[in-house]
Amino acid sequence: MKRILVPTDFSPNAETAFRFAMYLATLFKGTIILYHTYIPLENPFIGDKTQRAAHNFKTETRILKKLHRFKKKVVKKEDEISVSTIIGRSPLINNILGFAEHNHIDLIVMGTKGASGIKKILLGSVAAKVAQKSDLPVLLIPEKCNTNCLKEIVFATDFTPWDEKAINDTLSFAKLQNGTVTVTHVMDGHSHEKKKIKIKNDFEAYAYYMQRKINRRNLKFQLIETKAKEEKIKTLMNHTPYDMLALVRKNKSFIHKLRTVSYTKNLAYMMEKPLLIHPPG
């Protein structure tokens, strides 16, 4: 995770994400690109081509100064991390993803607003849409995140075919502080007994396979049972306190899942800690 992209809108949650990215870049010995996208003036009915170009130049100059002030606020003189500032143009989501793809970015770090009013805030947020569409890992940092610790990481699994790569990538975070990754599946306690036995057997086979393939001492596995589907993440946090939660994004739309009551409740718990979303495949 050497090249980290930090899209910013200069908000307090974006600042929190930038500070966390600085922490990661220090541990990974990486670099950061601080990135802001704006909508240029292109309406042919407003001025002529020269006037529009002059307007956009002034806008970009103003944004660049703001990026430098934002950078200076977070980056200290003693920091040895290279932080560059880049301005992009709309469309916002595609621009962020396109820039990441063409500039060999390893990780996108973005801030989120947290659990308060989560449906109104997060359903339309840029961070959620980037996490939904990105072919790169996206790390979502909650606004009130005040930890710089990655000792305990939980990888939530539903036994997807893409877990091996995602677990390996997650282990790279744990390695930074000699931490542990606990691969966890939360099982519905209301399931029929035969189904429970099947899930337990499947999980044991999955754990055996992953342990042999990855072969890391700091990789653990656990199966948790809960009686309430909507409380899965809460159960997980109570059972295994963690510093970061990781998962593989399912093919089912991330935004669509947010529209369900149970997933929104679960996400409210997730947003108390950094959330690392791996792309499928």
Mean pLDDT: 85
Annotation field: number of helices: 10
Rg, please?
Answer: 21 Å
- CATH homologous superfamily classification of the largest domain: HUPs
Q: Supply the number of structural domains.
A: 2
Structural class: alpha/beta
Which sequence of SSEs, written as H and E, runs from N to C?
EHEHEHEHHEEHEHEHEHHE
- Rounded to the nearest angstrom, the distance between the terminal CA atoms is 18 Å
Reading side by side through the largest sheet, how are the strands ordered? 3-2-1-4-5-10-9-6-7-8
CATH architecture of the largest domain: 3-Layer(aba) Sandwich
How can the largest sheet be summarized? 10 strands, mixed
Q: Rough shape?
A: elongated
The stretches of 5 or more residues where confidence is low (pLDDT under 50) are 114-124, 258-262
Question: Got a strand count?
Answer: 10
CATH topology of the largest domain: Rossmann fold
Note the quaternary state here: single chain
Name of the level-1 CATH class of the largest domain: Alpha Beta
- Strand residue percentage: 15-25%
